[in-house]
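To the structural biology subgroup,

Please find below the input and predicted structure for Ca2+:H+ antiporter, which we are adding to the shared reference set this quarter. The sequence is reproduced verbatim from the submission form. If anyone notices a discrepancy with their own records, reply to this email rather than editing the shared folder directly, so we keep one authoritative version.
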Amino acid sequence: MTRSALLRWTTLGPVLALLALVLTWGRDLGPVPVVVVAALLAAAVLAAVHHAEVVAHAVGEPYGSLVLAVAVTVIEVGLIVTLMVSGKEGAATLARDTVFAATMITVNGIVGISILVGSLRHGLVVFNKEGTGSALATVTAVATLCLVLPTFTTGAAGPEFTPGQLAFAAVASLTLYVAFVLTQTRRHRDFFLPVDSHGNILEGSGAGGSDDGAEGDHHAPPGDSVRRSLVLLLVALVAVVGLAKVESPAIESAVRSAGLPQSFVGVVIALLVLAPETLAAVNAARRRRTQISLNLALGSAMASIGLTIPTLALLTPFIDVPLQLGLGPTQVVLLGLTVVVGTLTVVPGRATRLQGVVHLTLLAAFVFLAANP
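Predicted structure (tokenized):
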């Protein structure tokens, strides 16, 4: 790595954030360190977006979106498990609150802001309805199996699965996720590639594509640059999630001081963890690559559930904390409304700023009701 590459903020940001994580892990921070950590967290988020776009441009779609979604989710699972093991207040519902928040943020927030930004810039956004529809159907299935059914099963007291039911939900969600990834990356990869206004696939599309869809002026970055970006992407994501954990006491204190319910901590954590994907999706929408934005949003929602629940199912016997996954009535209504609106958005294969505003309004309703249940 050259000296100039070492001195770039996209290199220094993740490295300094990781160093801060090492120095602050497990310690009580005062006001000044909390502010410094927050600044480094923001730098790591922006660096993660940059390196994700480099990797995505090199490997093409939908692999680029898949890399970012899976990387964030794997580290998110580690964060959830770490917070659950701590046994603090709300640990039993932390996984449910965080995963549901991630689902609402991705399916309403990332989808909504991507459509709004794309339509404001280009008038009308166009995407592949076959691929996006299958992604939404898979998200709906895993969310219902893992988050809605525990509320209505009677084998265990409260919104919990019995061990057998949890094992079935874990296997089912993992099976759906693997089946979707194979569909997305193999036989029907073309369903998840960006399209032009006439529905024609834009070959070679990546997050770094041009505004007009032409790829001839953009060449894949050198191999060493891609490898460096992949390493720095992973470093940045570890730093983002780790520093979110470091900041969690300050977040919990702020939530209590504001008189908000403990479950709102899961919303804040999900917002922090999904920040890199949100910015990457907005950048793709600005470049007329709405399909990439939707791949990121729905892929992240799917991975958040499809990888978190199986992991927790394996670890539950070793964690002395009950696992309450069932959503409450308000959350079930919001999830159902999200699915209906998402379906109506996806079916035409194109959307205007109205659909973006509708999705963002649903996100606002979720955040408001999470703060004021």
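Summary notes: Residues 205-218 have pLDDT under 50 and may be disordered. The radius of gyration is 20 Å.

Regards,
Lab coordination
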